[in-house]
From TrEMBL:
Entry binding sites for Zn(2+) 1: H91, D102, H200
Cofactor(s) needed by this chain: Zn(2+)
Pfam family, one: Peptidase_M20
Gene3D superfamilies found in the cross-reference section: 3.30.70.360, Zn peptidases (3.40.630.10)
Swiss-Prot/TrEMBL keywords: Hydrolase, Metal-binding, Zinc
GO MF term set: hydrolase activity, acting on carbon-nitrogen (but not peptide) bonds, in linear amidines; metal ion binding
Residues annotated to bind Zn(2+) 2: D102, E137, H393
Residue intervals of the Peptidase M20 dimerisation domain: 222-320
Keyword Zinc recorded: yes
Listed name of the protein: Zn-dependent hydrolase
Length: 427
């Protein structure tokens, strides 16, 4: 490919130093000296401090600040028409011991694009709204803010959602002075969402390994997250013969070894499955485990493949339980269907990437994003920037500043097209 040129125009480019300052300032909120990680989980004091910081930055840049009942934070740049808006955003909540870019980068770059457009004094045809969604990372199940935004949030989910420590979402919101019931009022009319754009680190190695500056996302993978129990019989480790045991941990070991076979027989090229958590009870060195509670996360860009994997996992659990004298229980905690990006928006992004002479490729997203929720009801597209070494959800995650500049200018040019040319947002 030819040499890089990240200018949108001679006069309209992002300010990388301003982006750096915002990223570093937000990274200090929730930072832990001991492990160098960021702890800004949803509806904690650190998360709320981040939201207040963002509102202040929006106000400082003469944008219109707002927040809704789900505590989504917005900044609005008005256009001539508000019949339908162009949205840009992501999230600023984090997993425990996070890095500084996941989610945050998309919000900071969205903010930067709006203030560049504001300072340019351009007359936009459409209003642009920056939005930072609440609890994308899943303290209470994930996608809370974008579910509320799209109308997918139900009273049942609102009232039943808990974190791993069994804290209710409603209690966490009340502790921060928020009225949980107002989250059900955060829905936007899909007919008034002209487009939603999100920039994110890739969270994988593809762009980095191929020395590319940006990725244009074709589709976001679907996923299911399960909480499972294998129930056997706790007994004495010394007096219980091996063939008498109903060992729940051995059942988990059997199931874990079945995963590669199930993926090979029922999955596809992009299928993934992970057991990320396991709790053994009674958890004593001299006791046969009578109960194992564990998680299963599996993903694929095909709805049919996800269903095939679901059935295969349940069949394996049933066979193992019969063989080892166990019982099993499956609770589906999350079910997010695959969502394609809007073809016309991908085309706009690609045309702009070519105009800027960027090294890019179209690609799949293997991680879930708020864009996935918005894409169910309105046109959506995503930009990826490289993750150094494929690292994410870790203090080690990083993206070169020049790649951040490239992605930011791609977003700026695309937003400008969408907000000034109504034809660009029509499918």
């Amino acid at each position: 490919m030819s040499a890089t040129n990240t200018s949108v125009s001679p006069d309209l480019v992002v300010d990388l130093e301003r982006i750096k300052r915002d990223i570093n300032t937000l990274a200090a909120i929730g930072f832990n000296d001991a492990d160098r990680g960021i702890y800004r989980q949803a509806f904690t004091d650190a998360d709320m401090a981040g939201k207040h910081w963002l509102l202040h930055r929006i106000e400082e840049n003469d944008l219109e600040p707002a927040s809704d009942g789900a505590a989504n934070i917005s900044g609005v740049l008005p256009g001539k028409s508000d019949a339908s808006r162009v949205y840009v955003g992501s999230h600023i909540d984090t997993v425990p011991c996070a890095g500084m870019l996941d989610g945050t980068l998309g919000v900071v770059i969205g903010l930067e694009c709006l203030r560049v457009l504001k300072a340019a004094g351009l007359e936009l045809e459409r209003t642009i709204e920056l939005i930072a969604f609440s609890d994308e990372e899943g303290r209470f199940g994930g996608m809370f803010g974008s579910e509320a935004f799209t109308g997918a949030l139900t009273p049942e989910k609102l009232l039943s959602a808990k974190d791993l420590g069994q804290t209710l979402l409603t209690d966490a919101m009340l502790a921060q002075g928020l009225d949980p019931k107002r989250a059900l009022e955060a829905r936007r009319d899909p007919a008034r969402i002209a487009a939603y754009l999100e920039l994110h680190i890739e969270q994988g190695p593809v762009l980095d390994q191929n020395l590319l500056q940006v990725g244009i996302v074709e589709q976001i993978t679907g996923l299911q997250s399960w909480s499972l129990k294998l129930m056997g019989e706790a007994n004495h480790a010394g007096t219980t013969p091996m063939d008498y045991r109903k060992d729940a941990l051995m059942g988990l070991a059997d199931f874990a070894h079945e995963i590669p076979r199930i993926l090979a027989e029922n999955g596809g090229e992009h299928s993934r499955a992970t057991i990320g958590q396991a709790e053994v009870q009674p958890g004593a060195p001299n006791s046969v485990p009578g109960l194992v509670v564990f998680s299963l996360d599996f993903r694929d860009p095909s709805t049919d493949t996800l269903e095939s994997l679901s059935q295969a996992f349940q069949k394996a659990l049933a066979a193992i339980s019969r063989r080892r004298g166990l019982k099993f229980e499956v609770k589906v905690q999350g079910d997010i269907q695959p969502v394609p990006c809007a073809p016309h928006l991908k085309d706009v992004l690609e045309a702009e990437a070519q105009r800027l002479n960027l090294r890019y490729q179209r690609m799949l997203s293997g991680a879930a994003h708020d864009a996935q929720m918005v894409g169910r009801v309105a046109p959506m597209a995503m930009i990826f920037v490289p993750s150094r070494g494929g690292m994410s959800h870790s203090p080690a995650e990083w993206t070169a500043w020049e790649d951040i500049r490239a992605g930011a200018n791609l977003m700026l040019g695309t937003l400008l097209k969408l907000a000034t040319s109504p034809d660009e947002v029509s499918s």
